[in-house]
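Can anyone check this?
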Amino acid sequence: MIIQGPELESIKNREVTFIKNFIQLKTNYDFNFISKLLEENDNLQSHYRPTNDMSPVLYKNFQIEQVGNLTLEFHSVLNYFKKIIKYDNHPRDNVDLFFSFVPSAGNTHVDQEDVYILGLYGKTMYKMYGENKKDYIINEGDLIFIPRGNKHRSVALSPRIIASIGFYGQANI
């Protein structure tokens, strides 16, 4: 888990940045992991993300909020970005999980925070719009940095789980 050279420069320049094989995950992040996480943590906020269609719930994208302190790996990745990018502390900085049981697509949107998307399971395409129009395929261990304000959409190409590491404070790199 090291960002250096051209990738670090790209993040410093606030550009969408893709890093293949960013991390060798130690945990098996599958749907058994999701089930266990929810069973052991009654206070977690989990819900499905609304989409514009009327498809059955199975086809929705689900979110579990604020899991940054629930595993050593999530905590380590969150702290890594806090240190290397030197974000100002903000109470909303955290890790959220997003998952889909079947191939599906989320809504096109713009985030108000910087997000680092880490692939945990399956395959997800991130479609970037505007000046950065490009598609990125995220697999287990891959990372994409999407600076706040960049219009994008996630498309689950298979059942998938991703970690979204979000920073609301200013970067001081």
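Reply from J.R.: I decoded it. The chain has three helices and twelve strands.
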